Amino acid sequence: MNLPNKITIARILLIPIFMVLMLVPFSFGSWNVNGNSLPYAHLAGGILFILAAATDWLDGYIARKYKLVSNFGKFLDPLADKLLVTAALLSLIEIAVLPAWMAIVILSREFAVTGMRLVAASDGQVIAASGLAKWKTVFQMAALAVLLFHNVPFEAWNVPLGMIFMWIAVFLTIISGIDYFVKNKHIFRHSM
């Protein structure tokens, strides 16, 4: 197994640790900033999420630079990303920081696009990530990171930055999902 695949597997193995930090009611105390409180376990969970998300860039960089791209990696890397995002979304719903409908929109689009990619792959076609989808990912990851910290670092400015980023991510999720299906509608015509 090559290094990028090991990094991807490490990302998957970090997910249960992240979820324990976010969902088990530890009593380690809290970080207080301007009257707002962030449990230390959630601070650690947020940092772990950022590190895990960064491994997505790292494994891809190493795979491309050293020509270590593999079919296993092409399958595992997007799966790891979806598992990490799903864990973060579900954790934020459970701790009452994110409305469930936003998570449902994001996850529904992910399942739909993944399904379309599987249909395309069965015909030997590859659907690359669009520019809109890349921006969706940027805002989604930024929103998740800020919300995992309960927006505490930004409360001093009285700006709900996490929810602003999440609204942008949801908008880009919908638009990029529509874009994928419009641009690739031929895939479904040929597979029916």
Automatic annotation (TrEMBL):
One of its GO terms (cellular component) is plasma membrane. It is an enzyme of class 2 (transferase). Pathway: Phospholipid metabolism; phosphatidylglycerol biosynthesis; phosphatidylglycerol from CDP-diacylglycerol: step 1/2; Lipid metabolism. Its main location: membrane. It is found in: Cell membrane. Its EC number is 2.7.8.5. It holds the Pfam family CDP-OH_P_transf. It catalyses: a CDP-1,2-diacyl-sn-glycerol + sn-glycerol 3-phosphate = a 1,2-diacyl-sn-glycero-3-phospho-(1'-sn-glycero-3'-phosphate) + CMP + H(+). GO terms for biological process: phosphatidylglycerol biosynthetic process. It is a multi-pass membrane protein. It comes from the Bacteria. Keywords: Cell membrane, Lipid biosynthesis, Lipid metabolism, Membrane, Phospholipid biosynthesis, Phospholipid metabolism, Transferase, Transmembrane, Transmembrane helix. The chain crosses the membrane at residues 12-31, 43-62, 83-107, 161-182. InterPro entries: CDP-alcohol_PTase-I (IPR050324), CDP-OH_P_trans (IPR000462), CDP-OH_PTrfase_TM_dom (IPR043130), CDP_ALCOHOL_P_TRANSF_CS (IPR048254), Phosphatidylglycerol_P_synth (IPR004570). Signal peptide: none annotated. One of its GO terms (molecular function) is CDP-diacylglycerol-glycerol-3-phosphate 3-phosphatidyltransferase activity. Belongs to the CDP-alcohol phosphatidyltransferase class-I family. This protein catalyzes the committed step to the synthesis of the acidic phospholipids. This is CDP-diacylglycerol--glycerol-3-phosphate 3-phosphatidyltransferase. It comes from Salibacterium salarium.
